[in-house]
Specification:
about 210 residues; 6-stranded antiparallel beta sheet; alpha+beta
């Protein structure tokens, strides 16, 4: 195992040392699940991203230990950056769920918030499903269940009611990130269906 001092030195080089330590201290104090992303300065001089998740347990002597998992998510972060730039041009939003933490919390991008006309940046998944028309809610529940438990992707066109009470058709895609055969993260894209159709027509007549 690599010397811990070298690991922390790499974290310090990434610039997120204080924030990472604070996230660990908060998890230890509250005994709530730890979930944080930070940068490290690798040996080759490249900045890489790590994502850590863990469940804390307090021992009889007061020591807190975590059953944790740390993954290198550099490629995913680079892809997210590229997708974010593309989304700004195509008006495609994004969303994600930490599949290791219940109740599942659905967070979304600024573009998604604009599409659904919400001032929030996320909501509990069970509540989010309620914005869809009643005849489609079971389809959304089943799609999310299969995604979060089996990693099965979905591509759905759905009718919802925005935060301002307007009916709107949207296209929602979902994918899963797995580790050791288990889903640890669900994510996807979100687009106004009208914008999607307009873009398809533009490509057809180009």
């Amino acid at each position: 195992m690599e010397d811990s001092s070298k690991i922390w030195s790499q974290v310090a080089g990434g610039g997120d040392m204080s924030a990472l330590q604070q996230s660990i201290l908060e998890s230890a104090a509250s005994l709530e699940k730890w979930n944080f992303e930070w940068r490290v300065l690798a040996k080759d001089g490249q900045v890489r991203w790590h994502h850590g998740m863990g469940t804390p347990t307090k021992k009889l002597d007061g020591t807190v230990i975590w059953d944790s998992l740390v993954m290198d998510v550099t490629e995913r972060k680079h892809l997210e950056f590229l997708l974010e730039q593309s989304a700004k041009m195509a008006k495609i939003g994004s969303w994600e769920i930490d599949a290791r933490t219940e109740p599942f919390y659905l967070s979304w991008s600024k573009t998604t918030a604009d599409i659904i006309e919400s001032e929030l940046d996320g909501i509990v998944l069970a509540e989010a499903i309620q914005v869809y028309s009643k005849d489609l809610q079971e389809i959304v529940k089943q799609g999310m269940y299969n995604l979060l438990t089996k990693g099965a992707p979905f591509d759905l066109e759905l009718l919802l009611t925005t935060g301002k009470g307007k009916p709107k058709w949207v296209r929602c895609l979902g994918q899963a990130q797995l580790f050791d055969g288990k889903v640890v993260r669900a994510f996807g894209s979100f687009q106004n269906r009208i914008s999607f159709i307009e873009q398809a027509l533009e490509l057809q007549f180009c």
